């Protein structure tokens, strides 16, 4: 049996602009499980391990599987069964969503089921944690600028050195510009959107057969599109979740998780109260060799790029043939090249370069 501490942590930006934890409560309502840096060294160290264990499981099943893999698959199914192959939105989205159903089918056999090694090694059960989080899932979680603002993470002056936010906002802007140019090319006014029956069927399918199929709750997703802006927002969400957001949450797993104490997938003993931790208790709380090996193996496998990986901005299938739209695709590529240089320049001054949103490391779709 693995213990999942329902942790609460308070963070603080210190005078060196570092985002650091200053208090962790391991059991809600139990003040004796509140730990701080000023307490016993092992109490604080072990409390951070419990917190990191919770973050790891939440990351894997919610931020990775639910918010990127499952979202991309939902749009993929609707895209393939509602659009004809010459529809511009089909041409825009196809390359970004086409691989998610296949990898998700594998995931639902190998990783997600109750008895799988990956599921048993993480202390949050995948199906139940996804089901629980899905109750409060909303489209705002996928709209990155809105999500960052909602969480109070959007202001660089209050939270400096948050490189994911800074790079994600830049990539989001480039994707949105690309989508805007394509949409404006094919839809001359909002009435064109309203009168596009394939597009309307696609949105209805996503909302009712995808997002709300089980309980009728559409979770903020529209079931029809009435303006070009709504279409631009939706397509930007699909492409970003299927590319940049997935890259950000997927490819750092080996680097972050290979040293088990840095982010244990599970903890063995119940959370400790103040004064209870020492070296022996810490070692007995961490997962054993077999569980640790499984966790590291999955982190390694999930962090690997395919040998024939295609990256964001490249165009593997020449679906668009109009010169104006090909120019739009080339402009998008140039925007990404510019961002690549900007991020690399920033990284030169960092002790730990942030590389997960370098455009040449963002696969064009979700395949792992
Ligand atoms: Fe993934």
UniProtKB/TrEMBL annotation:
Pfam families: Lipoxygenase
Keyword Glycosyltransferase in record: no
InterPro entries recorded: LipOase, LipOase_C, LipOase_C_sf
Domain Lipoxygenase: 1-368
Single GO term (MF): metal ion binding
One of the GO BP terms on file: lipid oxidation
Matching Gene3D superfamilies: Lipoxygenase-1, Domain 5
Keywords, in A-Z order: Dioxygenase, Metal-binding, Oxidoreductase
Name the record gives this protein: Lipoxygenase domain-containing protein
